[in-house]
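FIELD: query
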Amino acid sequence: MTVPRRADDEGLAAPRAAPYKALPAMTDTLALTLDLMARNSVTPADGGCQQVMMERLAAAGFTVESLRYGEVENFWAKRGSGGPVFCFAGHTDVVPTGPLAEWQSDPFQPVVRDGVLYGRGAADMKSGLAAMVTATEAFVREHPDHAGTIAYLITSDEEGPSIDGTKRVVETLKARGERIDWCLVGEPSSERRIGDTIKIGRRGSLSGRLTVHGVQGHIAYPQLAENPVHAFAPALAELASRVWDQGNEHFQPTSFQVSNLNAGTGAPNVIPGELKARFNLRYGPVQTLEGLKKTVEGILAKHGVRHTLEWYVSGEPFFTPAAELSRAAIEAIRRETGESPRLSTGGGTSDGRFIAPMGAQVVELGVVNESIHKVNECVRVGEIEALHRIYLSVLRTLLA
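FIELD: result
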């Protein structure tokens, strides 16, 4: 099963009309997934995905507001009035394809083979977006006068710097005095089968850009130089071997990882004049930003490392304790699969880190994440339909 595509006026891939109804086992959710996947939306591009979603939500009675910041497309949509406010959150941007030669088919020509849908965005997270929209449409048909407010917060800047996306929208909403009580993020949270894992929080992410200062010189005259590699090595050994904490019942222990390290001119007889390193700390609520910074800087000082250090905070940890939203999600999964999900805070960061500080309960619930960011990204078609039913069940429980 292949969805043909055309190039639009901006050179982005966009789908042509396809005889969806003639295809076997085609559902509205799968058709929308295929439509979104056939649109090239490598971050921060949106490729027209949000326009498709906004038109469908508007037809379902939503007030839709486009919020563009810089190159990033976002939208905020609402239906209903008053509280509680239930929000679906997600992103239309995808990561780059990687080597095209390693793909079994065009990453922006979605293909179904043996019940599995292949293409960029299949799991992360265009199937989740489609399931949100079709579940909402079904719920609104059932309950046109539903309780509270249903909202959507969608961005095209989740896979990129995450500066002009959800973070900026949340700032706008806060300035207006708007609120979100419950937020379901459609990230692919499942590990082996649909609904086996729900994310109820995420660790914080603190990155450092370190420059170790030395004195360049001839390698045969080390007494006339200062080697920054030698100066940094003992400090790095201590940072890498340190047990930062034991975590807690919900969060893994803090981890320290070096992502980049370089020094030298390339010549074999020159002591480098400086060393540059990038590192990251993933941490839970048992740590604080200032405490982590103080510890790192203390270890560098202890070993006499002359340095310059710049800090970058991608997000602080957040955690949603058992409450209405998580209970509704757990019950929806039990009804669909007959099993109880594992509650997790593992993995990387998500846009939930920007929404949780609004006072919202935040959970992440989506398809299996095994193939995300890889070549030949894929999802089982049956999981897309199951996710639609799970989302619909959550809406019924909270707002019917």
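FIELD: remark
The CA atoms of residues 85 and 156 lie 22 Å apart.
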